[in-house]
Amino acid sequence: MAIAQGRIEARLMLRHGEQLLLSLIIPAAMLCVAATMPVLGDSSGIDDIVPMILAIAATSSGFTGQAISLAFDRRYGALKRTGASGVPAHIIILGKILGVLAMVAVQVVVITLVALLLGFRPEPVGVTIAALTLVIGVATFTAAGLLMGGCLSAEIVLGLANLVWLVLVGVVGFVLYAYGLDDAGFFNLVPSVALATGLADSFAGSFPSLQLGVLVAWAVLFGLAARRWFRFDN
């Protein structure tokens, strides 16, 4: 049942024009611009830019997209109708998570193909570590999206989710421009930075234990808060 619900969520996301723009087109365009123009400084190479773009993509699908879609589902009673059809609450939530993972899989394929064309060559062993890091990062941002979208009104979420997305993306860009992903320091406490630096270390063949610890901590915090305050209606 969870897989079937996940397929439904994935199809809805892939049919949503704004979702495709935010999750696929913008990250791919940002990758091309950042890799071909020195907008993030001359020292920022493709090995730093790709992890940043993947982190932005995960933030878009897991957090912003889920928060907004969930808030409007609550507003128009879609969640209540789904629950009334006999689908348990935990299946609805799990289906949304599976839908996000499906979207992220599409993102990874698109971004990876573009990155390879631009000269990105990760360590083979690092690809597996990066996949683990990305899954944990997606879980973290999905939990955050479920928390915001499941607690606040649709009008508030629409503005706040995009604002938080801009802040998370801006912090990653600032860290890359000012310090480099290998010297993020205390900025690793920010989940988007932790994911970007963790992916950079992973692609280089290192295990990002610090960043994974930060992401897991945020995931647990967001998950517990969502469990406590999540509502299926307004």
From TrEMBL:
GO terms for cellular component: membrane. It comes from the Bacteria. Pfam families: ABC2_membrane. It comes from Corynebacterium yudongzhengii. It is found in: Membrane. GO terms for molecular function: ABC-type transporter activity. Signal peptide: none annotated. Keywords: Membrane, Transmembrane, Transmembrane helix. This is Multidrug ABC transporter permease. Its main location: membrane.
